[in-house]
Amino acid sequence: MRVRSRRAQRVTAVSRSRRDNFSGLRTLAPGAPAPGTPTPEIAGPRTQTMAEAARLLGARRGVKVVGVDGSGMPDAEIAADGAFLPGPHAKLAGPAFQEWLGTQA
């Protein structure tokens, strides 16, 4: 399986943490942000490429994952500049993907 090597900070969807994360987001963004304030963000605790996360999952399922260069994709330039990463004001929540994956049967 080929997966793009784009950096992200994913929030894992574990039941308790998921409720906490969405509850936290509602607290961060009860309504529209005031003009000039940053958009509320919630992110996972660790930066990781999509390919790294897919490799971890693939190893558990016996699927070989290969990270591919996304330089030809329309969003490659902004992705390389970190556009898919949270801003400095983001609320970090949940376990890292690898920790979450370790709890799955």
Description:
By secondary structure, the protein is α/β, with parallel strands linked by helices. The chain contains four helices and six strands, in the order E-E-H-E-E-H-E-H-E-H. Helix content is 35%, strand content 13%. A two-stranded parallel ribbon has the order 1-5. The chain starts with a strand and ends with a helix.
| Unreliable sequence segments | none
- E-strand count: 6
End-to-end separation: 22 Å
From the alpha-carbon coordinates, what is the Rg to the nearest angstrom?
A: 16 Å
Tell me the β content. Answer: 5-15%
Please provide a brief summary of the model.
This protein is of the alpha/beta class and about 100 residues long. It has helices at about 15-30, 50-60, 75-80, 95-100; strands at about 1-5, 5-10, 40-45, 50, 65-70, 90.
Please outline the helices and strands.
Layout (H helix, E strand, L loop, with lengths): L1 E3 L2 E2 L6 H14 L13 E2 L4 E2 H12 L4 E3 L7 H5 L10 E2 L4 H6 L3
Parallel strand pairs: 1-5, 3-6
Antiparallel strand pairs: 2-4
Identify the notable features of this structure and list them briefly:
about 100 residues, 6 strands, about 35% helix, two-stranded antiparallel sheet, alpha/beta
